[in-house]
Amino acid sequence: MPLRLPIPSSIFVRLYGGLLLVMSLVAFCTYLLLQVVNDYRAAEYRENMATGFFRLIAIGIERQPEGSLRQAWLEEASALMDTKITLVNAQLAGFDDGELEKLQHGRAVVRLNLQKNYADIFSQVSSTRDVYVQTRMSKVSEQQAKAMAIFLLDDLEHYRGREHERLRELQTYFPFPIELIPLDKSGLEPDQRARIKRNEVVLALKEGGVAHNSSIRIIAPTGMIGTVLIMGPMYLFDWMPVQLLIIISLMSLLVITTAAYFLIHPLEKKIKAVEGAARRIGGGDLSARAAVHGYDEVSQLAYAFNSMAEHIQRLIDSQRELTRAVSHELRTPVARIRFGMEMLADTDDADDRYKQLTHLDNDIDELNKLIDEILTYAKLEQGIPVLNFETIDLGGLLQQVAKETEALGVKATITTHLPPEGTVAEAEHRYLHRVLQNLAGNATRYAKTEIALSAGVYDNYAYIAVEDDGDGIPEKDRERVFQPFTRLDDSRTRASGGYGLGLSIVSRIAFWFGGNIKVEESPRLGGAKFVMTWPIKQKHRTTRSFVNHKT
């Protein structure tokens, strides 16, 4: 049977659809990655901004003795922050290992509650005791920003004369600069300078085109004349930093490029395999084939190319064999004609001349039949038969061929095993009749007493069978009998007739019908049994495409 392959997928769908899928996945993964990275960065930003501020609060609490003085300090700090500040222990706060490690290193822990829109902030008061400060904040106000400067100035009061050294110690807890500078170098506007001289804390906002360029500075007066404390610039959180976008874009391009390579490279390899095979065939190596597997369109092209190459190679081999066989088959009738012409020239007897003319006529008739057989085989072998499929009554065809065979005066009895009435199949009537006629004629040469014809359908396939009670065909010769000009030893005599092309023609017709033919031992008669099968439903076409057609 011909090789039937699945319908190939479109290269457009494979490439562009695959790339679209990859790009969609990359976009989705990029979105998730941005969310994860930004959530992590936002958490780091909140903790970094809170660490220095709440470290100052923890230091202030630690300086107060336990009791009413500490409680009074907490109340005063809570009023300054406009939010309640309490003390808790680790068990009450429920810290995990990661949070405890951060707290032990002086960092703040921020627990964000998105549903209720607030954050609980913790900082360790003492490294030797289980005491932590807790503050719940829903937003950062101007009052709280100014309170940060007040807490820092309060801490510097304990380091008079060493303020700059103390600021360097505290700088490790702040993600922005903290420094003491002369007022005239602060870059403040006149109204801001005036407020500083009135001992007010000033917030200076610098707006930029993007979040990364927008910043806030806190400027507070100190006890030192002409000197101010500056905290900042504190840059607002940038949800989409340029560096992050560049990294993610490069990663996305790398993923898309890699995916495109794995999508296109297999097709490129297959095309190169077909190209290499074509070059080898062009160089004279007809056995070259493209080693390609799969069901895409390039694979289908490779399968078609291999089938075409196989077909061309078989045609060339068949042509060579046909040339040798034809030259051999033509010698016998041509030699007899030449001999008859010589005999006709050497005799003057009218009866002898008539007898020789009769022999010449028979030899010419035999030569015409041989030429017809060769032309029929060549037409089928070259792959250009015009097939007009129609619905054939298999029972009627059996009866027709049986009558035609009996009319030849054969000695064997011809029996037909008719299928149920109305059994039909699609076929080309002329060629199907030729198959059954050739098989029946072949059987008449070797049958002893009986020839049986049968037909039928099963599993969407139709079949015709011819069997006889002759000596049969040895198993080793059952494939060889379908090769052109093949005649087994016991059929080489002229009395048996034939040219060794009948079964080859049958084999080619079976192929063009999309079926096959085989020979086996007849279970009922004991001789040879030829069975041809083909699909009941045929595609209405005039030629078949190149496919694997070994029978």
UniProtKB/TrEMBL annotation:
Query: HAMP domain: which residues?
Result: 265-317
User: What's a GO cellular component annotated to this UniProt protein?
Assistant: plasma membrane
* One Pfam family linked to the record: HAMP
Q: Where is the Histidine kinase domain?
A: 325-538
The UniProt keywords, alphabetically, are: ATP-binding, Cell membrane, Kinase, Membrane, Nucleotide-binding, Phosphoprotein, Transferase, Transmembrane, Transmembrane helix
EC number per UniProt: 2.7.13.3
Q: Which residues form a coiled coil?
A: none
PROSITE patterns per UniProt: HAMP, HIS_KIN
This enzyme catalyses:
ATP + protein L-histidine = ADP + protein N-phospho-L-histidine
Indicate where this protein is primarily found: membrane
| Transmembrane annotation, as ranges | 12-34, 216-236, 242-264
Q: What is this protein called?
A: histidine kinase
Organism the protein comes from: Agitococcus lubricus
